Amino acid sequence: MKKIDFYILKKFLGTFVFAITLILAVAVVFDFTETIDNFMEKGAPFKAIVFDYYQNFIPYFANLFTPLFVFIAVIFFTSKMAYNSEIIAILSSGVSFRRLMYPYFLGALVISVFSFWLGGYVIPPANVVRLRFEDRYVNRGHKAGAENIHMQIEPGVFVYMGNYYSYNDKGDYFNLEKFDGKVLKSKLSARSIKYDTITGGWTLRDYTIREIMKDGTQKISAGRKLDTVISIKPDDFKEERHYYEMMNNDELNDYIAEQQRRGVGNVEAFIIEKYRRIANPFAAFILTLIGVSLASRKIRGGMGLHIGIGISLSFAYIMFMTISTTFAISGSMNPLLAVWLPNIVFTMIGVVLYYRAPK
């Protein structure tokens, strides 16, 4: 590390912190303006607003747009260095453009590691508090947890449910089927099912049990209410708004593996979140490469043109990511490809700009 490396690294991290602080202040003001009516209408305590909501809202929002802030920071201070002829002086002293990139990538590494740690292990438990606050004081209604559920809970044991409502742990049109190979041995049907948080069991209403005997006859029993234990839990159906954001990396991996083992097909949002937590920090390197390659030369239009181009590319990246993940959730694209495709495309853009940058 040379003096010039510390100089660039200090400018990089300092500008990044300044930019992210400024944007977060603006975001908090706008969010408070939009939600203050809900806070007052539902009687949200001031302490809960500050410590349950905004204390957890700030790191979530900051980490979500970290690549954008990295890009803006690189564009801003590199463009300023270029127009002060500092870039020309550095290159004229014998430092190669490739060597000039080292402190930039070191800064991107520091931010990426911090972002990965935040997104994987710090923000998820904070999101539990924030989202519960939003459900109580901000949102006007609840959404169903899932619909048309079909999963294997044990070898040869399958569950079907028409709808599951996560806010009261209740489902309707429930069926539990047991097979011996391909032969149906029994079927339990119920109009509704509700989880008992005290006993850890399930209560079935208006149920019917059909048992297939060895001679092919059926034994049928029915009733109004049945308390039973089934090897499923409410978390298996938690697919409502942002539930995956409440899981740290280990919990997310375990959940995906368990749901795939049970044959649940609609876990694309969880898989996308898993890949996004890796791809999002990696994007800091790509956008740093593009930012330095763009802002290191003087062009007519000054620093404002550099910043305008940078912001346009940033929003193009975010829009590209949104479109590709939408295709993945709908099943039209592989989740891994959907998450990494923007990084791949913008890496190629960065390589082209790097080779066209002044050396």
Description:
It is a single chain. With 359 residues, the protein is an alpha+beta fold. It has helices spanning 3-42, 46-64, 66-83, 86-92, 97-137, 249-261, 268-295, 302-329, 335-356, and strands at residues 146-154, 157-165, 170-180, 183-195, 202-212, 218-228. The radius of gyration is 27 Å and the shape is elongated. The chain starts with a helix and ends with a helix. The model has no long low-confidence stretch (mean pLDDT 85).
Task: Give the SSE layout.
Layout lengths: L2 H40 L3 H19 L1 H18 L2 H7 L4 H41 L8 E9 L2 E9 L4 E11 L2 E13 L6 E11 L5 E11 L20 H13 L6 H28 L6 H28 L5 H22 L3
Antiparallel strand pairs: 1-2, 2-3, 3-4, 4-5, 5-6
Helix pairs in contact: 1-2, 1-3, 1-5, 2-5, 3-7, 3-8, 5-7, 7-8, 7-9, 8-9
Could you provide a short overview of the structure?
The chain is α+β, with helices and mostly antiparallel strands. It has helices spanning 3-42, 46-64, 66-83, 86-92, 97-137, 249-261, 268-295, 302-329, 335-356; strands at 146-154, 157-165, 170-180, 183-195, 202-212, 218-228.
What is the helix content?
55-70%
Q: How big is the Rg?
A: 27 Å
Number of strands: 6
Structural class: alpha+beta
| Strand line-up across the major sheet | 1-2-3-4-5-6
Query: What ranges have pLDDT less than 50 throughout 5 or more consecutive residues?
Result: none
Summarize the helix and strand pattern as letters. HHHHHEEEEEEHHHH
Number of helical stretches of at least 4 residues: 9
Total individual domains: 2
- What is the CA–CA distance across the termini? 21 Å
**What fraction of the residues are assigned to beta strands by DSSP?**
15-25%
Largest sheet: 6 strands, antiparallel
Q: Give the overall shape, derived from the CA principal axes.
A: elongated
Task: Estimate the mean pLDDT confidence.
Answer: 85
